[in-house]
Amino acid sequence: MRRALRERRGALAADERRRRDAAIQAHLLAMPEFARARTVLLYVAVRGEAETRDVIARALGDGKRVVLPRVVRWQGAVPPGPAPVYGSGGRGLALHLYSGPADLVPGPMGLLEPRPDAPWVTPGEVDLAVVPGVAFDRTGARLGQGGGFYDRFLPCLPPGVPRVGYAYAFQVVDAVPAGPGDQRVDAVVTDEGIIRCRPDVGPPST
């Protein structure tokens, strides 16, 4: 599933990608959760993911606090400082305030991330979490890149903080394999609209 959807994302023509990206952004900006949020957790899209830079710029322009994650791996019991790291088992995310492109540096996984010395925030300050994924389904199950960083981080958010997946419509599939440690999202924003997820809804009958 990961391979097939990555290939499909990568095969999008430039014009189609721009159209889809603009539609996803418009749907996210129209969400009441986005309008209410003062502090929004976003991420810098990579490797064919639905583009997020315009959303980041719009959130800053609206006067919101934009938070970006930094991937952290560690050995032993204590994650490295100085920013707190939220996760477990040697993998987690640190959360940093973002003010502009100069704040970003290449991370260890080839991602653009905040500098380690950028101002940090806690999960309790986040009002809305926009979450990447390779695939989602209508129950809110999510298939990530395989590293488990978000699955370890998301339980650190306070209860009630909306978790919103951000993806192309073809990334919403009938069923995503999910185990007890896999974290779900509350909604998925796509170029075709907003899907409000219901964990009690199974895949479509045939």
UniProtKB/TrEMBL annotation:
Q: Name one GO molecular function term.
A: 5-formyltetrahydrofolate cyclo-ligase activity
UniProt family annotation: Belongs to the 5-formyltetrahydrofolate cyclo-ligase family.
Instruction: Identify the stretch annotated as signal peptide in this record.
Output: none
Q: What is this protein called?
A: 5-formyltetrahydrofolate cyclo-ligase
Q: List the SUPFAM superfamilies.
A: NagB/RpiA/CoA transferase-like
Q: Where does substrate bind?
A: V44, E49
- InterPro entries found in the cross-reference section: FTHF_cligase, FTHF_cligase-like_sf, NagB/RpiA_transferase-like
- Which coenzymes or cofactors are required? Mg(2+)
Q: Which organism is it from?
A: Caldinitratiruptor microaerophilus
Q: Which Pfam families match?
A: 5-FTHF_cyc-lig
Reported EC number(s) for this entry are: 6.3.3.2
**Source taxon at top rank:** Bacteria
Instruction: Give, as one word, the top-level EC class.
Output: ligase
Residue positions binding ATP: R142, L143, G144, Q145, G146, G147, G148, F149, Y150
Reaction(s) catalysed by this chain, per the record, are: (6S)-5-formyl-5,6,7,8-tetrahydrofolate + ATP = (6R)-5,10-methenyltetrahydrofolate + ADP + phosphate
* Keywords, in A-Z order: ATP-binding, Magnesium, Metal-binding, Nucleotide-binding
One GO BP annotation is:
tetrahydrofolate interconversion
